[in-house]
Design a protein that fits this description.
391 residues; six-stranded mixed sheet; globular
């Protein structure tokens, strides 16, 4: 019988939730790394026991953690010991900027460096994306926005410098949460193709494994930038795709839900009848590539759900026509937010949908969104939710 493992990153530690295929009873493990911000945790599609986690602190910096037993124990690749709350890591993972787009000189982690337009700083890892084919290869999206790859299980990291080097890097601006590379999508049918998104620069695609990149923002419109239809400057919150149709992309933008059917070359709006088209998360049903999910948020100044009602919206038509999913969710006096990495789906026959809130609840639906139940409550604010479907 299949099992499900839900990986939850929070403001004050990581939690691992486990259940069988019925998904009606859950075991909770954690907090791991108590007191530390755990921005993202994700498992390898190749080895279900291999997990990667982004651990960060404003005082002590950024550390990548790795587990080889599904989260029971952890190690710091390239380091000596797992730091405890308040303890400085003895050896941090090594992130190397292979070259500065401005100077061409090698750069090392945690350094400011001067260019012709702006200094850049390594602050934190927002997103980890393990390879679809190799257990020791994993990608990291960081702030300030850059993309790194490790081929040794997270021990050392090297920048895919073509992203910042293609010319628009000096024009990138931070969103409210910082200038972060927060989304990495690997094309399951084309190992040379990667999609990424940056707040607040936009979406980009490489077709040669990261050597060269192109902005893919045509069709996006952002009214609060000098040129609303500019090539660069759009605040993209999240992108999702279905494995069977990697050329079809869905986007939750800072205002507007968008769709592209040509690998991002052109986008069109699918917000339709949503109560608000602002939000952070978007995801796709595991078996129905035209079924998508979003959670509308009231506005960019009021980061909570509209009308005090927590509602997931589902479209079975690839957008434009949306239905509110409310059964089991609070419909009064609820003022939580759901952050960009805090929704995921499982791969069971009846697809499960999961999301976490800034109020510390993780909700699950074992029937594709028709009904919901909180599988854990009162955690620290949830930053990310990922799901593994295990044999």
């Amino acid at each position: 019988m299949s099992k499900v493992r839900v990986l939850v990153g929070t403001r004050k530690g990581a939690f691992v939730l486990s259940s069988d295929a019925k998904r009606d009873r859950w075991e909770v493990s954690g907090p791991h790394f108590a007191g530390w911000e755990m921005y993202h945790i994700k498992g390898s599609p190749v080895d279900p026991n291999r997990l990667y986690a982004s651990q960060t602190s404003g005082w002590f910096g950024q550390v990548i953690q790795r587990s080889n037993d599904g989260g029971k124990t952890w190690e710091t690749p390239g380091g000596e010991a797992i730091p405890q709350p308040g303890e400085m890591p003895k050896v941090s993972n090594k992130f190397v900027y292979d070259s500065s787009p401005e100077t061409g000189k090698p750069l090392t982690t945690h350094q400011f460096y001067d260019g012709t337009q702006r200094p850049w700083e390594f602050k934190r890892v927002w997103h980890l994306e393990p390879s679809l084919t190799d257990r020791d290869t994993v990608y990291a999206g960081v702030e300030d926005a850059a993309l790194f790859r490790s081929s040794d299980g997270g021990q050392s990291w090297h920048e895919l410098a073509g992203l910042r080097g293609h010319g628009t890097g000096p024009k990138w601006q931070p969103g409210a949460g910082g200038m972060c590379l927060h989304t990495i999508l690997l094309d399951p049918g084309n190992p040379q193709r990667i999609y990424i998104a940056i707040s607040a620069a936009g979406a980009f695609r490489t077709d040669d494994g990261g050597k060269t990149w192109k902005p893919i923002n045509q069709g996006l419109r952002s009214q609060y930038i000098p040129d609303p239809t500019a090539e660069i400057g759009h605040c993209v919150h999240r992108i999702a795709l279905h494995r069977s149709r990697p050329n079809t992309l869905f986007m939750q933008k800072h205002w507007d839900v968008m769709r592209s059917d040509n690998a991002g070359d052109l986008w069109h709006e699918i917000s339709g009848n949503l109560p608000t088209d602002f939000g952070f998360v978007i995801d796709v049903h595991a078996h129905e590539p035209e079924t998508i999910y979003v959670i509308p948020i009231k506005s960019d100044s009021e980061h909570f759900v509209p009308d005090g009602k927590l509602r997931v919206y589902r479209s079975r038509t690839g957008g434009n026509e949306w239905e509110a999913l409310t059964k089991g969710l609070p419909q009064s006096d609820c003022y939580v937010n759901v952050l960009r990495d805090a929704m995921a789906v499982d791969a069971l026959d009846k697809c499960g949908i999961y999301f976490g809130t800034t109020g510390g609840q993780v909700y699950a639906s074992a029937d594709a969104g028709d009904s919901w139940t909180p599988i854990v409550r009162d955690l620290p604010a949830v930053l990310s939710v990922e799901v593994q479907t295990l044999p």
